[in-house]
Amino acid sequence: QAFGNARTSENNNSSRFGKFIQLNYLESGVIRGAVIEKYLLEKSRLVSRDKTERNYHVFYYLLMGTTRDEQEDVSLVKAARLLLPQPGTSDLLSHIALPALRCFLLLPP
After folding, report:
1. Residue 30 domain flag
2. Could you name the domain of life of the organism this protein comes from (predicted)?
3. Domain that holds residue 70
């Protein structure tokens, strides 16, 4: 979820994937099975978003769980201005920091 979910104005953990759902039926009309295929990631969120929303969770996990040198190595320092709460919002960094750090510790090395 860290790589495809983001906070929106309606949901704190909203999937930003497009999904194709295929239902398979028996001739009698009973559902036989289903397939859910993820096929799209909301790329526009990478460079812009509404003031009340956040970017993908993984970026905050990386910001909170890495050193400044590590952030510079992967160009996170420049990206931080797009990731951190924008002026005029009631969303403070402290509301992001601790949960993000906890989640970062769960990411594989």
Report:
1. no
2. Eukaryota
3. 5-13+43-104
Percentage of the residues of the chain whose pLDDT score is greater than 90 = 13
Contacts of 3 (CB under 8 A, 6+ apart): 56, 57, 58
Q: Total structural domains in the chain?
A: 1
The residue to which tokens 């890495």 are assigned: 66
Cα 79 to Cα 81: distance, rounded to the nearest angstrom: 5
103 pLDDT band, cuts 50/70/90, is: low
Q: Is residue 20 domain-resident?
A: no
Q: Which of 78, 73, 3 has the alpha carbon at shortest distance from 45?
A: 3
Distance CA 39, CA 17 (A): 7
Query: pTM above 0.70?
Result: no
Scanning 14-84, the segments in alpha helix (DSSP H) are: 57-65, 68-73, 76-83
Structure confidence by residue, pLDDT tens digits, 68-97: 888 888 888 777 766 665 554 445 444 555
